[in-house]
Structures are given as C-alpha cells and as structure tokens.
Amino acid sequence: MKILKTINIEDVFPISLCSRKMYHLVKNFRDKSIPLILRIDGEDLSVQVITPDGNYHQVEVIEGTCETAEQVNINGHQVPIDRSIDKWDWMTYWDDKEEGIHSVVEYLSDLYGVKKINKITMNHSEVWLLSYIEKRQENDYELELQPGLSEEDCHFILKNYHPKIVWILWSSPGNFAIAQYMNSIESLFSLCELPITLDDVLNMNCVDLVLQHNEFTESEIKRLLQHWAIGGLRRLKYFSLYVKDAEFNMNHVLGDLVGLSHSRMTKEKKYK
Fold it and tell me: Which residues form the Sdz-33 F-box domain (predicted)?
C-alpha cells in the first residue's frame, strides 16, 4: 500500500468517497507525517483542511439540492456533491445545513485523524456553529470575529460562548467593549484598534495579548511592566503593544523597574 502514501492531501477526500473500502484504505495508508488542521468558515459555511504551508481544500455545505450532481455517502447520508469550477472546492447539498456541517466535520475528522476543530470564523448568521463546537469540544477552539458582525452580535457571542482564543483581524465593530470579556478569554489577538485602556490591560486575565494598533505611552508601558514584575498578570506569558512615543527607549524603561529580570531574545523560543 506504499502507493497510497504518495496521494496528495487534497485527493484523499474524493478518493475516500468512491467506496467504504477506499475510505479505509486512504484513511489508514495515506501519508500521516503531515500535520493537518480543521477549520470551519462561517461565512461560506465550509469545513477546511489546512496544511502546514497554509494551503487548504474545503468542503462547502449548501442548503438545497443539485439534480445534476453525483450522489455520495457522507457520514451515513446520501447527498449530492459537485465541484466548484472557479475555486475547485467541493460543494455538498443538504436538506439541513446544521446536519450537513455536523456530518462533514465528523467525516473529515475521522478520515484525516484530526479530532479537534482548530478555529471558527464567524459572521452574524451562523451563531449556531458555536453551540455545535462547544458541545463537541467545550471551549477548546479559536474564534475569529468577522467585520460583518455588529456590536450587538459580538456581545451576544462572548456572553454566551467561551472560546479560548479570539482573533479580530479586520475592524472592530463600533465601540465594542471587549475589555469586559478579557477575564474569560485566554488569548486575544487584534490587528485593529480596540477600545481598551491601560486599566483594562492591568485587570485582564489573558495568557497572550497582541494589540497591534492600540497606542500606549512610555509611562503606561512602564506601569504595565512594573505591575507584571510585582506579581500582577500572573497568567501573562506574551504581549505585544504599540508605543506611540517617538523617542521610546526600552532600556530606559526596564532600567527603572525593580524586581524585573529580562533578556533580549536572540532566537525563537516556544513558551507554551
């Protein structure tokens, strides 16, 4: 069965649909040295299989039918399947989209041996995905909040669901006060400015905090580091903040802090 180890990752799924025998063959004998990630995209309602180089193939769940499509068995359901000509994604058609996502996730999870959904990207219309994922694996997942979400949507999501990691990559919805949730979020990564103050940071409970466009002064950074040095922010392992002072001097800041030991990193270090 060595020939099966040469099959590309994107070909495993269609080959597995040919028969139950082929499913078990490619599942058991494909190249398993490549670590894979499963992600759900709530915008186009698809399940993505992602390789270490960032490439992915996806299976889209569409509520409806396609009379010209071939019928295949996915997790015990006979459903039509077709392939997108422009994106080369697989499109599956279901009477119930929630049943479709559940079936596709479990099928791909078993086929590729990836038990956990790593990340969900969320828009306003598919919040039920979070109920499904937390029932499946509790809060062990990452959530990416999409630009289309309103401030009300974001409050509803973070009040009712509890992802370990939250990503905000594009824009903050209005004046969404995310600071009130920073005691339950383990890690927050934002590439846009958020309404977060220094006091919010001092009172948070995050392990990782990345605020790429929130501006802090040199005195605020000094106060933050001093708080960390005397035992505050006990869970914090990594943070990245933007300093707006043009003449900011990190050595000067660190030299004024009592009880804080530090060293300049010269190589990559994994702290988790």
Answer: 194-241
> How many domains does the chain contain in total?
1
Residue 168 falls inside a structural domain: yes
0.85 exceeded by pTM: yes
User: What would the two tokens of residue 229 be?
Assistant: 């040095």
- Within-domain flag for 76: no
Q: How far, CA to CA in Å, does 270 sit from each of 6, 59, 237?
A: 32, 33, 11
Gap between the Cα atoms of 186 and 158, Å rounded: 13
Question: What does residue 227 show for φ and ψ, rounded to 5 degrees?
Answer: -60, -40
pLDDT at residue 176, as a whole number: 82
In a domain, 68, yes or no: no
pLDDT on residue 218: 85
Q: Is residue 224 part of a domain?
A: yes
- Written as one string, the DSSP assignment of 108-158 is HHHHHT--SEEEEEE-TT-THHHHHHHHHHTT-SEEEE-TT--HHHHHHHH
Domain, as residue range, for 188 = 116-272
